[in-house]
Write a structure and sequence with these properties.
The chain has about 375 residues and is an alpha+beta fold. About 35% of the residues lie in helices and about 15% in strands. Strand 11 and strand 12 form a beta hairpin.
C-alpha cells in the first residue's frame, strides 16, 4: 500500500485508505483534508509531485485545482454582498459600466455567479487569459449567447473574469489580492490566485491521464465546440455560427505564465488543507477559528437555487447556486483533472481532495469516493 503522510482521526481511517488506493492504482500524488466544525479530522498526503516520481509530495505541496478556484472567487463576492457592497440583483453594469455593451444591460450579478449570463465561451488565444485588461475587455464587448437568466451554460473560463472584475471595480483590488487579504490571510490558508515565483518550487505540475500527452485538452472546451452553432440562434444581436471555444491544454496550465496570471475560474493553487479550511467558512455558518467572514444569512445565500435544468455546456442536468453546484444538501464543485471540494452545512463538514494526476472525466470518481469515505467517518463521530 502507498505510504500516506499526515494525521487523521481513527474514525476517518477510510479517507487515507481511499487516497492510498488511488495511488496504488497508478496516481502520481495528491492530498485529502476533512474539516468538521472548522477543525481538521483528516489532513493527509502521499505520492509524488512530479511525473517522474522523484520528488515526494510534501505537506506544503501546491497544485493547480482548476475549477475548484471558482468556489474561492464566489466566496469573495459573497463576502462583499454580506457587507452590503455588492447587490446580487443589480446589473453587472452598475459596477462595471462598459459591460453594458452589446445587449448586456440586463445581466445581473447573480447571473454571472450561476452560469446563466450567456457568456460561456472563451474564443480568443490562451495568452490573452494572462492579461486582465484584455480578458475583461473582450468579455465586456461580447454579446450574450442567450437571454441572460433564461438558460445555463457552464462558464468554464469566463466566470472568474466576470465575477473578478466586479470585485475589482468595487474594492479597487485585483481578486487575487482581495482573496489574499480578506479571506486567505485572516484564515491562514495557503491558497493563491496568482502564484508568486517564490512558491514555484512547491508546485506539483498537472500530469495528463495515462496515454495522454501535454496537449491533452479540457473536455469542456471540446464539448462546447459541438454546441456552438446550435446556440448561435439564441444569441441576441448576432447571427450565424460563432467561433469555437479555445481549447485549454495541460501544457497551458503548467506554464509559468498561467501561475502568475489571475484567472479566477481556473488558476488557483493550493492543497487539500487550504481548500477545506477556506470552504469551511460557509460550512460553519460563516466563522472558522474565531474569524467571521460571513453571516449565517450570507452562507444561506450561497445555496439559493438560481437555475435547475439542462446545462448547455456540461450536457447534463444541474442545479446552480451562487457560485456553487447544488447536490441535494451538499454543495461545491470539482476541477478538471479530479480536484474536488464538497460542503455539508448540516453536518458542518468540508471535504477537499486535490491531485496532480488527471483522469478522464467520464471515469473519474475519486472525489466522490473521498466524500463517501468522509461521510462514513462522520456517522461514527456523531454516534
Amino acid at each position: 500500500m502507498a505510504d500516506i503522510q499526515g494525521s487523521y482521526d481513527d474514525l476517518f481511517a477510510a479517507v487515507p485508505a481511499a487516497l492510498a488506493a488511488a495511488l496504488d492504482e497508478g496516481d502520481v500524488g495528491g492530498s485529502v483534508a476533512v474539516f468538521v466544525d472548522g477543525e481538521p479530522v483528516v489532513d493527509v498526503w502521499g505520492g509524488f509531485a512530479d511525473a517522474g516520481r522523484t520528488v515526494p509530495w510534501q505537506r506544503d505541496t501546491l497544485v493547480n485545482v482548476w475549477s475548484v478556484t471558482k468556489t474561492m472567487t464566489a466566496l469573495c463576492a459573497l463576502v462583499l454582498a454580506d457587507r452590503g457592497e455588492l447587490d446580487m440583483d443589480a446589473p453587472v453594469a452598475r459596477y462595471w459600466p462598459e459591460f453594458a455593451a452589446a445587449g448586456k444591460e440586463g445581466v445581473l450579478v447573480r447571473h454571472v455567479l450561476s452560469h446563466t449570463a450567456g457568456l460561456p465561451d472563451w474564443v480568443w488565444p490562451v495568452a490573452e487569459l494572462h492579461d486582465w485588461p484584455t480578458a475583461t475587455g473582450r468579455l465586456a464587448a461580447q454579446a450574450p449567447r442567450w437571454e441572460p437568466g433564461s438558460a445555463a451554460g457552464y462558464h468554464s473560463l469566463t466566470q472568474g473574469f466576470l465575477v473578478g472584475e466586479v470585485v475589482r471595480r468595487i474594492t479597487g483590488r485585483m481578486p487575487g489580492a482581495f482573496f489574499a487579504e480578506e479571506i486567505a490571510g485572516p484564515l491562514g490558508a495557503d491558497f493563491h490566485i496568482g502564484l508568486s515565483a517564490r512558491d514555484d518550487h512547491r508546485v506539483a505540475p498537472a500530469v495528463p491521464p495515462p496515454s495522454r500527452g501535454e496537449d491533452y485538452a479540457a473536455s469542456a472546451a471540446a464539448s462546447d465546440a459541438t454546441t456552438a452553432s446550435e446556440d448561435s440562434a439564441d444569441r441576441p444581436g448576432e447571427a450565424g455560427a460563432s467561433p469555437a471555444p479555445t481549447a485549454l491544454r495541460v501544457r497551458d496550465g503548467n506554464s509559468v505564465a498561467w501561475r502568475r496570471a489571475q484567472i479566477p475560474a481556473a488558476s488557483g493553487f493550493g492543497n487539500a488543507r487550504s481548500v477545506a479550511l477556506v470552504q469551511s467558512v460557509p460550512a460553519c455558518g460563516g466563522t472558522v477559528g474565531g474569524v467571521r467572514l460571513l453571516s449565517g444569512a450570507g452562507c444561506e445565500r450561497a445555496w439559493e437555487e438560481q437555475f435547475a435544468g439542462q446545462d448547455r455546456r456540461l450536457g447534463m442536468p444541474v442545479s446552480w447556486g451562487l457560485g456553487y453546484g447544488r447536490f441535494g444538501g451538499t454543495y461545491g464543485w470539482g476541477g478538471w483533472g479530479g480536484s474536488t471540494v464538497m460542503i455539508e452545512p448540516e453536518s458542518r463538514m468540508t471535504v477537499a481532495y486535490v491531485t496532480n494526476q488527471m483522469r478522464e472525466p467520464a471515469t473519474d470518481t475519486r472525489g466522490l469516493g473521498m466524500l463517501m469515505a468522509a461521510s462514513d467517518g462522520l456517522r461514527g463521530l456523531r454516534a
